[in-house]
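Structure tokens please, single chain.
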Amino acid sequence: MAATRACLVALVVALTFLFMEGRATAARMSAGNLVQRRQEVRSLLRRLNKPPVASIQSPDGDIIDCVHIIEQPAFDHLLLKNHTIQMYPSYNPKGMQHHSNITPHLITQIWHQNGKCPEHTIPIRRTKEEHVLRASSVRRFGTKMPRSIPLVNPINDTNTPNILRGHQYAAASARYDKCYGSKGTFNMWKPAIARANDFSLTQLWITAGSYNGNNLNTIEVGWQVYPNLYGDSNTRLFIYWTRDAYQTTGCYNLLCSGFIQTSNQITIGGSISPTSTYGGTQYDIDILVWKDRAGGNWWLQVGGYNDGYWPSYIFSDLAHSASAIMWGGEIFSPDAGQTSTHMGSGHFPNEGFGKASHIKNIQVVNSSNCLNPPSDVGLITERNNCYNVQTGNYGDWGTYIYYGGPGNNPNCP
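Here you go.
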């Protein structure tokens, strides 16, 4: 009996030793992983944060670095090493003017309150260590995860299994053999975000290719509220691009090389103020993306400023033309169950002006470089009791949509 007890004691001691040793090993590995991750983060920050000519502390907590135009992150791209900057588009689309009896209100970015960037520089929101550490990995920072885009015909598309999981849309779409851009006036809101990893956005998508073969090309522009990316709940201007269905290329804003900025007025990724209030003052911003038929680049104009361009040769299919354009809202929530994150104003389209969010004066650039109303507009929505979309055409609003919703509600459990 004594021998048995001695064996049991020895076994317990041995198991305790192995357990403690395992914990110590795990702790060493965890500490080593943390050190490696921080080293990767600092390496990324050195690449992203170029030496500024001047820096501006924004009231919202951002630091805006005024970086010389030839030092911007775009030129880290292998295809852009010897690129000559095109400071202005060769041609603007014809028919850009529109008249409205609703007085527009000036949209500004919050950092403008404390200064402006000098000529020959561009404003870049400084990336901080805490921004990167919120990402699932350093490699995935600033990219869409999971990869997603609304489908023009989302029903029974066998090429995209599970891609849209966690994403909900209320959008309009139009298909073309060839088209060359789009313009719209976007109503600005600050939607409520229910969960830490949720986002809510409103944008236009210019696309070519498809998920099949991983050759989907997109240019995406709009506004979003995305706490996990930005660290706050401000409404922010954003851009995105990809040439391989979000597999390895593309990113938000200037967090990878590709988009070449030319303006010192607009910070891509910067907060926008003011935003609309329910039943109160409404604020809109014009967004135009079009292919410069002379230079071939895809230009971005925001609020009347030519902000920069995507060189055509960073794309495959979009190097030539687009085949589909979409406008509307998107919600992403990675958690199980229906989120109550708002889309747009958080109210349904049938509430109308001043209450539901809208995009008006929707136009498409054709092969003659003219802006025209879209044709055969279709609607995309999966759960219209959560988020919905309506379209119409009226007077000086032209083609428009109302869209949005509250998410979780008694009719959307």
